[in-house]
Write a structure and sequence with these properties.
112 residues, mainly alpha, 2 helices
């Protein structure tokens, strides 16, 4: 017997589908704003991470040389790791572009 709200019940026999959503085109001012936002986010996260790792005491304005050295060492390592990430991302993007150019499914490596 039909129940109230049956028309909203999910049918278990209908398969779920997924669709790829295209990324918006970043042109002009939008691209510049995105670049500035990325730089600011990188800077904020690097400083937040390294401030906690170096043990900086921000309640006073004086930093011992050991804390300053730890902070600078952390920032340089953070920068090196981020450069490695950017290189890996570029390689991945080139691989995905090659797959798309050949007309293959770029999600095939991630399917079981």
């Amino acid at each position: 017997m039909r129940q109230i709200k049956d028309e909203y019940r999910q049918n278990p026999w209908i398969p779920n589908t997924q669709e790829e959503i295209e990324a918006p085109a970043l042109t002009g001012d939008l691209q510049e704003d995105h670049r500035v936002w990325n730089r600011n986010e990188y800077s904020a996260k690097a400083h937040r991470f390294c401030t906690s790792r170096a043990g900086l005491n921000l309640t006073n304005g004086e930093y011992p040389d050991a804390e300053r050295a730890n902070f600078q060492n952390c920032m340089s390592k953070y920068s090196q790791n981020f450069q490695t990430f950017l290189q890996e991302r570029t390689i991945f993007q080139k691989r995905m572009d090659g797959i798309t150019a050949r007309g293959e499914n770029k999600y095939a490596p991630y399917m079981w």
